[in-house]
Every structure is written in structure tokens, then in C-alpha cells.
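::Amino acid chain::
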Amino acid sequence: MEKKAFITDLYQRTEKILNLAIEQYQNLDEEALSFAVDEQSWSIAQCLAHLNTYGHYYLPKMEIILAKPNQVSRAAYVPGWLGSYFVKMMDIDKQKKYKAAKQHQPQVKNAYAEVTEFIDQQETFLKYIKAFEVVDVNNIKIPISISKLVKLRLGDVLAFMVMHNERHIHQIRNIQRAHSNALTKRTVSATLAL
């Protein structure tokens, strides 16, 4: 894929996610952020906490890459076979559920802090995506978070992170819909009780 188109696509998709977080998630109350359909399901805060664990791992690695002198490269992005596999795993249309690795299990202490952290990370990620426009995204490799022995091309990591974020944003939309339905039922039940 042509490098500029690849980076522009990732940037626009991440910008959309960031705007959603700013316009919606940071304006939700604690009940909405903590609502889960059932005990096996995640809340909005847990989805964001899960995504934040990926940011905690990958963003510092990206910062290190950008801090080094890199040869300028505008070579087309060529996905690796393993990177393509991981990106396809995150495809929303597949609707297959995966259990999060232990280090990516969400631990929410403060729902508002998770939203703030997510917004901060997406702002940083946007800067990095833009900076990678002139960096070789094919030859630079990053060890994946669940196994330091396995490395993916930088371009594959960028594509994975965006697709993974979108997957959980889709999940958050479903949580919001379920929360709205639960509130409607609660209101109807309260009205009927009168």
C-alpha cells in the first residue's frame, strides 16, 4: 500500500476515535462508564483500560524509535504475514471473541482516569503516526506485548493498534446501546409502578 495513503488512513481513523472519546466518553458519568451487561462483559471503562495497557506497552517503544536517527523512507507499506494475521483477528466483522492476555486484563481503579489516559494516549499516537510518515515501517520491528520473542513490522503494529482500538470502540457502542436500553426499562418500570 502506498505509504502516504496508509499513514493518512491510520491517522484519520485514530482522529475519529480520539474525537469520539473527547465528545462522548469524557462526558459520561461514572454509572455509564462502569455499566456492564453482565458479569462476564466489560464496561466502557474496562474497554478503555484494556486499550490503555496496549498504549503503555507500544507507545514508549514507538517513542524510542522516533528518538533514534532513522533513515528517511517513503517506501510503500508491505504487511508481513504475521502482522496481517493479527490485524485480521481484530476485524469487527468477524465478531469472534478473544480472551485478553493476562497483562491486558483491565484493572479499573478510577473510570474517569481511564478515559483521560485513553485520550492522552490517542493524542500521542496521532503524533507518532504522523511522524512515521517518513520512517521505514517495513524494516523496523517491535516485539509484541504477549511474547517478546515475536516481532512485528512497525507498520503492522500501527495497523493492529488502530484496528484493535476500532474493535473495542465498536464494543463500547454496544455497551452504550445496552445501557440506554436498561435506563429506558428502568424508567418505564418506575413509571408503571406509579
